[in-house]
Amino acid sequence: MRIEFIMPVMRPKLALLVLDDLAIQTQLINKITIVDNGGNFKLQRKYPFEVELISYMKNIGVNAVWNKMFDIEADYIGLIGDDYRLDKNLIKILINSFKLHKDMAASTATIFKKDNFLSADPYNISGRHVSGKGHMGAIIFRKCILDQLPLIPKEFFIFFGDNWLGWWIDTIGYKIYEVSVGISEVYKTDLKDKLDYPTVIENERDYWKDWLRSKIEL
Asked: How many angstroms separate the CA atoms of 187 and 100, rounded?
């Protein structure tokens, strides 16, 4: 069983903490591909899994980074944000949870707004069906399901990639399940002003609504 992750990085100091948290779970991770969207990320040490660092010296957008997962050949492929802290059993629980439901396309962690959540029990896993929107802080997909999905359109630069993936997963008859393991956003830094979130999300929301109403093709 091969497991690989993709991580877009705009917050280099916090991304290093994510790598440290993943390193604890080394026996379950083969490789992580880091795409440096800020142009200033540097690895500080060696890790017990393969790390590939890609830098275009510009921000190519979250969804362009996510689209790189479609080219990966692994049994399970994960996406993870650069501003979380992770439960020590995260990967084990996400992988084991695929035994819960036959229609499970992806297993995603529960996002907490605090860092003192209790460590989850890898032998007592529960889950609930969720949409893609707002639930992809740390998520693992079955490769065989990803192969059935279309790429996220270029019109979605930062937002709506999770909507897109979730919509298509539901459409082909599978589901995303949020399971009983936590990640924390407490260390998040604010990129809203730097990336002009209000303007970007307004434009991308228009594309999303028009596509759902069949007014445009993407």
From this structure: 31
Q: How many Å apart are CA 54 and CA 33, to the nearest integer? A: 7
CA dist 164 and 180 (Å) reads 24
Number of domains in the chain: 1
DSSP per residue, 76-132: EEEEE-SS-EE-TTHHHHHHHGGGT-TTEEEEEEEEESSS-PPPP-TTS--EEEE-S
Percent of all residues in the chain with a pLDDT value above 90, rounded to a whole number: 81
Q: Is residue 199 part of a domain?
A: no
Question: 23-52 pLDDT, tens per residue?
Answer: 998 678 999 999 999 888 999 999 999 999
Structural domain of residue 79, as residue ranges? 3-189
Under DSSP, is residue 156 helix (H, G, I), strand (E, B) or coil?
coil
